[in-house]
Write a structure and sequence with these properties.
Number of strands: 6
Bound molecules: arginine
Number of helices: 19
CATH class of the largest domain: Mainly Alpha
CATH superfamily of the largest domain: Fumarase/aspartase (Central domain)
Structural class: mainly alpha
Shape: elongated
Oligomer: single chain
Strand content: under 5%
Radius of gyration: 30 Å
CATH topology of the largest domain: Fumarase C, Chain A, domain 2
CATH architecture of the largest domain: Up-down Bundle
């Protein structure tokens, strides 16, 4: 009885099909979750009167031995040749240890409710792990912000210099993105942490399984409400893939910023040697491969999300084998995202910030032109007119090769009599920054508060 389903068959499976059908190569990752689920299920079978106390204890002890063996020695999982999936592997090991009584464990259970249970146990652990990685990345962003409280960065829109911002403010922008990512994972976890076990193949089970008690013993927060939905739902996987994709968007955008900022043309940042590579041909090169790979790997994570949606969209209720395809997609999603989070954290820990280059870039190219327009507004001019006028001043200054603070008062007054000497106080970088004192703005005061608030928020999470 090596298969879980041999009785109805006369012929053997085609060898190539058997390999095609088998999932043990990848679903062995669910080993621990599968055994834990089985231990709890054995308890539920005893409570339902299906197993005697002695049988239940024998099964539990054997499963604990299997769990220990598998956890201590990865090769243990290679010992059964040709196991179809992790569920048949564990059953085979169980029967090897205790004989026929092991065959009782699957009573009233299907791999359909089992695999979803396993995946949910596994994924909630992975979500917690991802949460810790995002937390670490956020802390590195805060560290870098605190190390560079004064650094001024030219802010961009359309990749054109726009207005000066504090570098710390820029870093906090990513902090917020990753904070939303973590919130989404917490939400996602609620929907992952629902127990399908007891749904049987699709209709429920004839045995008196106390599902609420079983859920408690497996630390599930709820039990699924409909057996058909329970075995055919992979929303929680797709949701996780979508959340991972969005986190990859954030990582990829940050990677792109850092690639640009570490070019000699920008020179705002220099990557640490730990996360850069050289060229096989050009001795002078220091390439940002770490960031390029993060940017590049976002594509495969998006692909997994799209793939999962496509896999599910035409499936009739209830379980269909198509759904086995969810494993490799979600496992690779998790591996890729974790790798990127690790590497990005290392990038932040090792990056050198050239505040002089940032400052120099922020001082040029009319970055405080909006301040000139706002100055005129304070003097009573309508904003649209002030905007038009300052546009003309910028054009004039550009043609003269002058900056905004190079223009004399006489030159300014040719454009408007509203200009007075106090103009020069408001068009400095410091004044521009200080002026952005609204909630969420880039004034030093607001940013200092924001860093403190972000620290409190992150410490409250842990
Ligand atoms: N390995 C399958 C999966 O990942 C679970 C087994 C259910 N198979 C079945 N033939 N009912 O979805």
């Amino acid at each position: 009885m090596s298969k879980l389903w041999g009785g109805r068959f006369r012929g053997a499976a085609n060898e190539q099909f058997a390999r095609f059908n088998a999932s043990f190569r990848f679903d062995r990752r669910l080993f621990e979750a599968d055994v834990r689920g089985s231990i709890a299920y054995g308890g539920a079978l005893r409570a339902a009167g299906v197993l005697s106390t002695a049988e239940a204890e024998e099964i539990r002890d054997a499963l604990e031995t299997i769990l220990r063996s598998g956890s201590n020695d990865p090769k243990y999982l290679d010992q059964v040749a040709g196991a179809e999936d992790v569920h048949s592997f564990v059953e085979r090991k169980l029967v090897d240890l205790i004989g026929d009584v092991g065959y009782k464990l699957h009573t009233g259970r299907s791999r359909n409710d089992q695999v979803s249970t396993d995946l949910r146990i596994f994924l909630r652990g992975e979500i917690d792990r991802l949460g810790r990685l995002i937390d670490g990345l956020q802390r590195s962003l805060l560290d870098l912000a605190e190390e560079n409280p004064q650094a001024v960065l030219p802010g961009y829109t359309h990749m054109q210099k726009a207005q000066p911002v504090l570098f710390a403010h820029y870093l906090l922008a990513y902090f917020e993105m990753f904070n939303r990512d973590r919130d989404r994972l917490i939400e996602n976890r609620r929907r992952v942490n629902v127990m399908p076990l007891g749904s049987g193949a699709l209709a429920g089970t004839n045995f008196a399984i106390d599902r609420e008690l079983l859920a408690q013993s497996l630390e599930f927060e709820a039990v699924s409400k409909n057996s058909l939905d329970a075995v055919s739902d992979r929303d929680f996987v797709i949701e996780l893939a979508a959340n991972a994709a969005l986190t990859m968007v954030h990582l990829s955008r940050m990677a792109e910023d850092f690639v640009l900022y570490s070019t000699t043309e920008f020179g705002y940042l220099e990557l640490g040697d730990a996360v850069a590579t050289g060229s096989s041909l050009m001795p002078q090169k220091k390439n940002p491969d770490s960031l390029e790979l993060i940017r590049g790997k976002s594509g495969r994570v998006f692909g997994h999300h799209a793939g999962l949606l496509a896999t599910m969209k035409g499936l009739p209720l209830a379980y269909n084998k198509d759904m086995q395809e969810d494993k490799e997609a979600v496992f690779d999603t998790l591996d890729t995202l974790s790798g990127c989070l690790h590497v990005m954290t290392t990038v932040l820990k090792s990056v050198k910030v050239h505040t002089d280059r940032m400052l120099d870039a922020a001082q040029h190219d009319y970055m405080t032109a909006t301040e000139v327009a706002d100055y005129l507004v304070h003097k009573g001019l309508q904003f649209r007119k002030a905007h038009e006028l300052v546009g003309k001043i910028v054009l004039y200054a550009m043609e003269n090769g002058q900056g905004l603070s190079d223009l004399t008062m006489e030159q300014y007054q040719r454009f408007s009599p509203l200009f007075e000497d106090d103009l020069y106080d408001v068009i400095t970088l410091a004044a521009s920054l200080a002026g952005k004192a609204v909630t969420g703005g880039t004034s030093p005061e607001r940013v200092t508060e924001a860093i403190t608030e972000a620290r409190i928020r992150i410490n409250a999470n842990s």
